[in-house]
Amino acid sequence: MALMNLITAINHTLDLAMAQDESVVVFGEDVGLEGGVFRATVGLQEKYGQQRCFDTPLAESAIVGSAIGMAVNGLRPVAEIQFSGFVYPAFNQIISHVARMRNRTRGQRTLPLVIRMPHGGGIRALEHHSESLDTFFGHIPGLKVVVPSTPYDAKGLLLAAIRDDDPVMFLEPSKIYRAFRQEVPEEDYTIPIGKAKVLKPGTDLTVVSWGAYIHEVLKAEQILQEEGIDLEIIDLRTISPIDRDTIIESVQKTGRFVVVHEAARSFGPGAELITLVNEGAFLHLEAPPTRLAGFDITIPLPRGEHHYFLDAQRIANGIRQVAHF
Question: Known catalytic residue: 129?
């Protein structure tokens, strides 16, 4: 095993996938020569050449459109959008073509492509650099949406995404790119897309989160444990498809449910998960299902972003109210 942070695990995984399969190509803005703005692709162009790892113009629609053409013609492209807030010009390609190709051709053609992008805030960046777009992509039929929270999961989920015959939006929490290191096997392994992970079993209340916020939830758990509140913590890992069975089974056991996410509160993933719980475990509930989320505003610029994001204490306060309902 090797100690890796999230960005190192992404780089290692792309290297492994390209070594194993010549149809895997990696490209995006500054991805080749510079190795990407976060250095996720550093060294890949030097190792595999400009035909398989290359820079593109500053044109997100063209990046995704090119990935579609490559995937239709037998390649497995991994396209990088430099920041998630830059993806909006590519929405036409993603929604009109990427998500619909299997349906449009009645299953005769698929698009085995991955679109990677940094996800969320917390890095004191400029406008359009801190978007949380879980809901946008999760709402579109035909897309799989993955958000890893650890280096180990990032490798297993990214390998699964690259080998998937359907398109995957791979959202990488930039706040934890270099936040910590973890032992990651250097050999090949995958994690099934659509399967959540129970990080900690508990009896009093179910908490679901993903990405960078998982680590704030774990800190909140330490606070609440001292008060005798026993949380069951689930890392969703995949926004679409949602692992409904794991969530429902947990809430049927605990009787209480809180979802914690970075995206704005209204119409966010939390609303969908609460509906899921109401439909699948209503008679087991002992308190109203609750969402702890971002405010319904544009994410503030660097000097004010700490007011927007939930920390462990704010999460603990919200969970405590549900636990004592």
Answer: yes
Contact yes or no for 255/285 (Cβ under 8 A) = yes
Which range marks the domain in which residue 86 is found? 2-184
Distance CA 237, CA 232 (A): 16
Number of domains in the chain: 2
Output the pTM of the full model: 0.95
* Amino acid found at 123: I
Q: What is the pLDDT of residues 4-16, one digit of tens each?
A: 999 999 999 999 9
pLDDT at 3 over 90: yes
Q: Which residues contact 62 (CB under 8 A, 6 or more apart)?
A: 56
Phi-psi group of 194: left, alpha or beta (phi > 0 → left; psi -120 to 50 → alpha; rest → beta): left
**293 in the same domain as 258:** yes
Checking phi first, is residue 128 left (phi over 0); if not, alpha (psi -120 to 50) or beta? left
Query: In the prediction, which pLDDT does 46 show?
Result: 97
Instruction: Exactly one of 12, 97, 119, 129 is catalytic; name it.
Output: 129
Give the H or E element holding residue 170: strand 168-173
